[in-house]
Amino acid sequence: MTFPIMDLDSWTLSQSIVVFSVCALVIAIAGTRITRVVDQLADRTGLGEATTGAVLLGAATSLSGSVLSVTAAYRGHPELAVSNALGGIAVQTFAWLLPIWSTVVQTWNMRRPRLRT
């Protein structure tokens, strides 16, 4: 017995976009909550925010990508599995480098000699 809602091949583009948007909203809401929970765990365990953040938040944020890649590979879509992994790495690298680059540019601007008029 199959449920019509689970037959993803029969979804229209609009339905897929709506479901994707709802899932993204759920992830955004859960993401803000999980950061507060991890902060509380860091305080209660005494492990420190850097350690708990790196381990727990890193594991939580990597879980969805790992599940997607494994599921895609299992269902015979190796291109999706590999591109998801590479895309995730690229986005995480960009998100990591953006604040560093911003700091470098701000520091450079502060040290640059100004023209006097």
Regions with little confidence, pLDDT below 50 for 5+ residues: none
How much β-strand is present in the residues? under 5%
What gross morphology would you assign?
extended
Q: Which structural category fits the helices and strands? A: mainly alpha
Helicity level: over 70%
Question: How would you state the average pLDDT, rounded?
Answer: 83
Instruction: Let me know the largest β-sheet.
Output: none
Number of domains: 1
Summed up, the helix count is 3
Distance between the termini: 80 Å
What is the gyration radius calculated from CA atoms? 21 Å
Number of strands: 0
**SSE run:** HHH
Write up this protein.
- This protein has 117 residues and is mainly α.
- The protein has one domain.
- The chain is built from three helices and no strands.
- Helix 1 runs antiparallel to helix 2 and helix 2 packs antiparallel against helix 3.
